[in-house]
Design goal:
Layout (H helix, E strand, L loop, with lengths): L1 E7 L1 H4 L15 H9 L3 E7 L18 H11 L5 E5 L13 H17 L10 E6 L9 H6 L3 H5 L2 H12 L2 E4 L16 H19 L1
Length: 211
Protein backbone atom coordinates (compact mmCIF):
# COMPACT_ATOMS: atom_id res chain seq x y z
CA UNK A 1 0.00 0.00 0.00
CA UNK A 2 1.35 3.41 -1.03
CA UNK A 3 0.31 6.26 1.28
CA UNK A 4 -0.10 9.75 -0.14
CA UNK A 5 -0.67 13.00 1.75
CA UNK A 6 -2.54 15.62 -0.29
CA UNK A 7 -1.75 18.96 1.36
CA UNK A 8 -3.65 21.96 0.06
CA UNK A 9 -6.28 24.64 0.49
CA UNK A 10 -9.93 25.04 -0.52
CA UNK A 11 -9.27 23.45 -3.91
CA UNK A 12 -8.24 20.33 -2.03
CA UNK A 13 -11.06 20.68 0.51
CA UNK A 14 -13.50 20.93 -2.39
CA UNK A 15 -15.19 24.34 -2.23
CA UNK A 16 -18.09 24.64 -4.67
CA UNK A 17 -17.93 28.12 -6.30
CA UNK A 18 -21.70 28.11 -6.82
CA UNK A 19 -22.75 27.43 -3.23
CA UNK A 20 -19.64 28.01 -1.13
CA UNK A 21 -20.25 24.57 0.35
CA UNK A 22 -18.33 21.38 -0.31
CA UNK A 23 -18.41 19.17 -3.40
CA UNK A 24 -19.63 15.63 -3.03
CA UNK A 25 -16.76 13.41 -1.91
CA UNK A 26 -16.21 11.71 -5.26
CA UNK A 27 -15.79 15.10 -6.98
CA UNK A 28 -13.08 16.41 -4.64
CA UNK A 29 -9.55 16.36 -6.03
CA UNK A 30 -7.99 13.87 -3.55
CA UNK A 31 -10.95 11.49 -3.80
CA UNK A 32 -10.97 11.59 -7.60
CA UNK A 33 -7.23 10.89 -7.52
CA UNK A 34 -7.75 7.92 -5.20
CA UNK A 35 -10.45 6.55 -7.48
CA UNK A 36 -8.21 6.89 -10.54
CA UNK A 37 -5.28 5.21 -8.78
CA UNK A 38 -7.34 2.23 -7.61
CA UNK A 39 -6.23 -0.48 -5.22
CA UNK A 40 -2.85 -0.22 -3.56
CA UNK A 41 -3.02 3.51 -2.85
CA UNK A 42 -4.31 5.53 0.10
CA UNK A 43 -4.84 9.27 -0.42
CA UNK A 44 -5.13 11.34 2.75
CA UNK A 45 -6.82 14.70 2.24
CA UNK A 46 -5.41 17.64 4.21
CA UNK A 47 -7.27 20.56 2.65
CA UNK A 48 -7.79 23.75 4.66
CA UNK A 49 -9.72 26.65 3.18
CA UNK A 50 -7.56 29.77 3.01
CA UNK A 51 -4.27 27.96 3.59
CA UNK A 52 -1.19 29.76 2.23
CA UNK A 53 2.22 28.31 1.47
CA UNK A 54 4.17 29.92 4.31
CA UNK A 55 2.37 33.13 5.28
CA UNK A 56 0.05 34.19 8.09
CA UNK A 57 -3.59 35.17 7.69
CA UNK A 58 -4.19 37.27 10.78
CA UNK A 59 -7.93 37.61 10.18
CA UNK A 60 -8.50 33.85 10.29
CA UNK A 61 -9.64 31.92 13.34
CA UNK A 62 -7.33 28.99 12.50
CA UNK A 63 -3.69 28.67 11.49
CA UNK A 64 -3.51 29.04 7.71
CA UNK A 65 0.27 29.13 7.49
CA UNK A 66 1.07 25.94 5.59
CA UNK A 67 4.71 25.89 6.61
CA UNK A 68 3.81 25.98 10.28
CA UNK A 69 1.37 23.06 10.17
CA UNK A 70 2.95 20.78 7.55
CA UNK A 71 5.35 18.98 9.89
CA UNK A 72 2.45 18.10 12.20
CA UNK A 73 0.62 16.50 9.29
CA UNK A 74 3.75 14.60 8.25
CA UNK A 75 4.09 13.16 11.75
CA UNK A 76 0.35 12.47 12.06
CA UNK A 77 0.13 10.37 8.91
CA UNK A 78 3.58 8.78 8.83
CA UNK A 79 4.96 6.79 7.18
CA UNK A 80 4.29 8.43 3.84
CA UNK A 81 5.43 7.54 0.33
CA UNK A 82 4.42 10.78 -1.38
CA UNK A 83 3.39 14.30 -0.38
CA UNK A 84 1.41 16.34 -2.90
CA UNK A 85 1.68 20.08 -2.34
CA UNK A 86 -0.99 22.17 -4.08
CA UNK A 87 -0.88 25.66 -2.62
CA UNK A 88 -0.29 29.21 -3.80
CA UNK A 89 -3.75 30.47 -4.70
CA UNK A 90 -4.25 32.25 -1.37
CA UNK A 91 -0.76 33.73 -1.59
CA UNK A 92 -2.18 35.80 -4.45
CA UNK A 93 -4.22 37.91 -2.03
CA UNK A 94 -2.40 41.27 -1.89
CA UNK A 95 -2.73 41.44 1.91
CA UNK A 96 -1.01 38.03 2.16
CA UNK A 97 1.79 38.21 -0.40
CA UNK A 98 0.39 38.98 -3.84
CA UNK A 99 3.19 37.75 -6.09
CA UNK A 100 4.33 34.57 -7.79
CA UNK A 101 7.78 35.10 -6.29
CA UNK A 102 6.39 34.94 -2.76
CA UNK A 103 4.41 31.81 -3.59
CA UNK A 104 7.49 30.15 -5.09
CA UNK A 105 9.53 30.96 -2.00
CA UNK A 106 6.78 29.59 0.22
CA UNK A 107 6.48 26.42 -1.83
CA UNK A 108 10.23 25.90 -1.66
CA UNK A 109 9.98 26.09 2.14
CA UNK A 110 7.28 23.39 2.10
CA UNK A 111 9.35 21.08 -0.09
CA UNK A 112 12.30 21.43 2.27
CA UNK A 113 10.10 20.67 5.29
CA UNK A 114 9.03 17.39 3.68
CA UNK A 115 12.62 16.48 2.86
CA UNK A 116 13.94 17.20 6.35
CA UNK A 117 11.12 16.07 8.66
CA UNK A 118 11.20 12.28 8.74
CA UNK A 119 9.07 11.26 11.75
CA UNK A 120 11.12 8.28 12.88
CA UNK A 121 14.09 5.95 12.29
CA UNK A 122 13.69 3.66 9.32
CA UNK A 123 10.86 5.69 7.81
CA UNK A 124 11.24 6.75 4.19
CA UNK A 125 11.72 10.31 3.04
CA UNK A 126 8.54 10.87 1.00
CA UNK A 127 8.70 11.86 -2.63
CA UNK A 128 7.21 15.29 -3.36
CA UNK A 129 4.85 16.33 -6.13
CA UNK A 130 4.45 20.09 -6.57
CA UNK A 131 1.17 21.05 -8.22
CA UNK A 132 0.53 24.53 -9.58
CA UNK A 133 -3.16 25.32 -9.07
CA UNK A 134 -5.18 26.49 -12.08
CA UNK A 135 -4.76 30.27 -12.41
CA UNK A 136 -7.39 32.71 -11.21
CA UNK A 137 -9.80 34.08 -13.79
CA UNK A 138 -12.04 37.09 -14.31
CA UNK A 139 -15.22 37.13 -12.24
CA UNK A 140 -18.20 39.45 -11.78
CA UNK A 141 -18.09 38.63 -8.06
CA UNK A 142 -16.88 41.95 -6.61
CA UNK A 143 -15.85 40.45 -3.28
CA UNK A 144 -13.55 37.82 -4.77
CA UNK A 145 -12.28 40.18 -7.47
CA UNK A 146 -11.14 42.66 -4.82
CA UNK A 147 -9.81 39.98 -2.46
CA UNK A 148 -7.52 38.66 -5.21
CA UNK A 149 -6.87 41.97 -6.97
CA UNK A 150 -3.88 41.63 -9.30
CA UNK A 151 -3.83 37.89 -8.78
CA UNK A 152 -4.86 36.81 -12.26
CA UNK A 153 -1.60 37.93 -13.83
CA UNK A 154 0.51 36.68 -10.93
CA UNK A 155 -1.17 33.28 -10.67
CA UNK A 156 -0.58 32.67 -14.38
CA UNK A 157 3.16 32.67 -13.61
CA UNK A 158 3.00 29.99 -10.92
CA UNK A 159 3.34 27.02 -13.25
CA UNK A 160 6.68 28.12 -14.68
CA UNK A 161 7.92 29.16 -11.23
CA UNK A 162 6.90 25.86 -9.63
CA UNK A 163 8.30 23.78 -12.47
CA UNK A 164 11.68 25.44 -12.03
CA UNK A 165 11.53 24.99 -8.27
CA UNK A 166 10.61 21.32 -8.57
CA UNK A 167 13.55 20.69 -10.90
CA UNK A 168 15.92 22.42 -8.49
CA UNK A 169 14.60 20.49 -5.48
CA UNK A 170 14.34 17.07 -7.12
CA UNK A 171 10.55 16.99 -6.86
CA UNK A 172 7.88 16.04 -9.36
CA UNK A 173 5.74 18.72 -11.00
CA UNK A 174 2.24 18.89 -12.41
CA UNK A 175 0.53 21.89 -14.02
CA UNK A 176 -3.09 21.94 -12.84
CA UNK A 177 -4.03 24.21 -15.73
CA UNK A 178 -3.27 21.38 -18.15
CA UNK A 179 -6.47 19.60 -17.11
CA UNK A 180 -8.66 22.09 -15.21
CA UNK A 181 -9.71 25.73 -15.01
CA UNK A 182 -11.20 27.92 -12.32
CA UNK A 183 -14.84 28.93 -12.39
CA UNK A 184 -15.80 32.49 -13.38
CA UNK A 185 -18.47 32.37 -10.67
CA UNK A 186 -15.84 33.45 -8.15
CA UNK A 187 -12.63 33.33 -10.23
CA UNK A 188 -10.90 31.10 -7.68
CA UNK A 189 -12.49 27.69 -7.14
CA UNK A 190 -13.22 24.68 -9.33
CA UNK A 191 -16.65 23.44 -10.29
CA UNK A 192 -17.34 19.76 -9.69
CA UNK A 193 -16.33 18.68 -13.19
CA UNK A 194 -12.98 20.49 -13.09
CA UNK A 195 -12.28 19.35 -9.56
CA UNK A 196 -12.73 15.69 -10.51
CA UNK A 197 -10.78 16.24 -13.74
CA UNK A 198 -7.81 17.59 -11.79
CA UNK A 199 -7.81 14.60 -9.47
CA UNK A 200 -7.93 12.12 -12.33
CA UNK A 201 -5.35 14.08 -14.28
CA UNK A 202 -2.86 13.77 -11.44
CA UNK A 203 -2.94 9.98 -11.43
CA UNK A 204 -0.28 9.34 -14.13
CA UNK A 205 2.18 11.74 -12.45
CA UNK A 206 1.64 10.02 -9.10
CA UNK A 207 2.05 6.56 -10.59
CA UNK A 208 5.25 7.62 -12.29
CA UNK A 209 6.75 8.99 -9.08
CA UNK A 210 5.85 5.89 -7.09
CA UNK A 211 6.75 3.31 -9.73
Amino acid sequence: MKTILFYGDSLTWGTDPETGLRHQAEMRVPDALASALGDGFEVISEGLRGRCTAYDEHLADCDRNGARTLATSLYTHAPLDLVILMLGTNDMKPHIAGTWVAAQQGMRRLVKIVKHHVPGPGMPVPRVLVVSPPPLCETPDVFFAEMFKGGIEQSAKLADAYQLLAAEEGAGFFDGAAVAETSPLDGVHLNAENSARLGKGLAPAVQSLLA
